[in-house]
Design a protein that fits this description.
two-stranded antiparallel sheet; 7-stranded antiparallel sheet; alpha+beta
């Protein structure tokens, strides 16, 4: 009985160690480091997943998705706290962000929704600036506040609206994302780590 208990403890310890190792490696992708925790005016967000956008064997950027405490990845586009950070490997002009936003939103909403949020799309597009390699954009949505765009930690503006925010984040994690592989990586999370934390492994 004592031997079996010892075996279970060892197995659980190895599982937790593996989970923390997975979390640690998930914080670094293609040389880009992402903190495992972010706080926006008292609202905590935790790292859920990371990934890299690659096109024709060229890596464009590394991205990380953060979700509010207790938010399941399946609910990431509901009216919940979320954040996406993107660090670019290449220089990109502001107008490229504008066209990508317009196209990406159109792919994820119907015509009626698009009509309702057209003004908000224009407001976020007016905030974009050119970026250089190593620059980092972040979009942070807080219910009741809106979606803040920041560049290298400097806030550029906030656009209100839960519906608009869901459409905007849908570019990366929606039903018709920019890249399905990246979406799946961002939404993957760490099931094993969650099991270790919530006591499923005892």
């Amino acid at each position: 009985m004592r031997l079996m208990k010892k075996i279970r403890v060892i197995a659980w310890s190895l599982t937790v160690a593996f989970a923390f190792s997975a979390q640690s490696s998930a914080e670094r992708v293609e040389g880009v480091e992402f903190n495992d925790y972010y706080e926006w005016n008292g609202t905590p967000l935790r790292l859920n997943g990371t990934g890299v956008l690659e096109r024709f064997f060229l890596k464009g950027y590394a991205a990380a998705l953060y979700l509010g405490e207790g938010v399941h990845p399946a609910d990431a586009l509901e009216d919940v706290p979320r954040r996406i950070e993107i660090e670019y490997f290449r220089a990109i002009p502001a107008d490229a962000f504008v066209s990508a936003t317009v196209k990406g939103v159109l792919q994820n909403v119907d015509s009626e929704t698009h009509a309702r949020i057209r003004g908000s799309i224009g407001r976020i597009n007016a905030l974009y600036e050119d970026v250089s390699p190593g620059d980092r954009y972040a979009l942070t949505y807080i219910p009741g506040v809106g979606t803040e765009l920041s560049l290298n930690g400097e806030p550029k503006g906030v656009v209100e609206g839960a519906e608009f925010s869901a459409a905007l984040f849908g570019i990366w994690i929606g039903g018709a994302p920019l890249d399905e592989g990246l979406r799946d990586e961002l939404l993957a999370g760490s099931t094993l780590l969650s099991m270790a934390y919530d006591g499923s492994i005892d």
